Amino acid sequence: AQSVAQPEDQVNVAEGNPLTVKCTYSVSGNPYLFWYVQYPNRGLQFLLKYITGDNLVKGSYGFEAEFNKSQTSFHLKKPSALVSDSALYFCAVRDRGDSNYQLIWGAGTKLIIKP
Amino acid sequence: NAGVTQTPKFQVLKTGQSMTLQCAQDMNHEYMSWYRQDPGMGLRLIHYSVGAGITDQGEVPNGYNVSRSTTEDFPLRLLSAAPSQTSVYFCASSTPRTGGPGGYTFGSGTRLTVV
């Protein structure tokens, strides 16, 4: 069965420190991978995606993610955290062979950046 | 370009009442979907559509109905509201791009309370 795991419900980071939000996945074929962010009382916003090519993907607000096929992971990273990065982050995956455009979602990780 | 528009933003229903949550997109996206978001449970897919006249059930379809008469609109109907349907509802749309998929575009959500 296809699935996405975000093993941490919450990640706490001090402002200015690097941050990592973890994501691992399981799909039957080759994946498309996505990260979304949700600020309080808002809808989800697209951050970045991996389609093909370079395993390091750069996205909005200084975030990047590294696709690791052997470890089936797509961890979200940022070199220096800001308090404004505090939000709920969702990882999602789609099987390239899925013609119904379905994304499989992780449960979300709450990121808290402390001043 | 308005993106995905959801109405209303907030709604309180009495048990047994029916209502329709509206979702409209102006991006000519083929794919539209409805999710509900509950604390600690991430996003759960209710119904989705891959084009006008085509709908299908997601993970939690019971108590909800959808139709897709046009590309732009994808309303979600609650047939007889129950307290278990208290949640935040998100509509999302998407389209594949050449060489890979586009991400989802989300509406700002409808916060529904059933008393």
Your description of this structure?
- The complex is a heterodimer of chains A (115) and B (115).
- Chain A is an all-beta fold and 115 residues long.
- Chain A has no helices and twelve strands.
- Chain A has strands at 3-5, 10-14, 19-21, 24-26, 31-38, 44-50, 56-58, 64-68, 73-78, 87-95, 104-105, 109-114.
- In chain A, strand 10 (87-95) and strand 11 form a beta hairpin.
- The model of chain A has no long low-confidence stretch (mean pLDDT 92).
- Chain B has 115 residues and is an all-beta fold.
- Helix content of chain B is 0%, strand content 52%.
- Chain B contains no helices and 13 strands.
- Chain B has strands spanning 4-7, 10-13, 19-25, 31-37, 43-51, 54-57, 64-66, 76-78, 87-94, 96-97, 100-101, 105-106, 110-114.
- In chain B, the strands form three sheets. In chain B, strands 2, 4, 5, 6, 9, 12 and 13 form a seven-stranded mixed sheet that branches. Chain B has a four-stranded antiparallel sheet with strand order 1-3-8-7, with no helix packed on it. In chain B, strands 10-11 form a two-stranded antiparallel sheet.
- In chain B, a hairpin with a 2-residue loop joins strand 10 and strand 11 (100-101).
- Chain B is globular, with a radius of gyration of 14 Å.
- Chain B starts with a strand and ends with a strand.
- The model of chain B has no long low-confidence stretch (mean pLDDT 90).
- At the A-B interface, strand 5 and strand 6 of A face strand 5, strand 9, strand 11 and strand 12 of B.
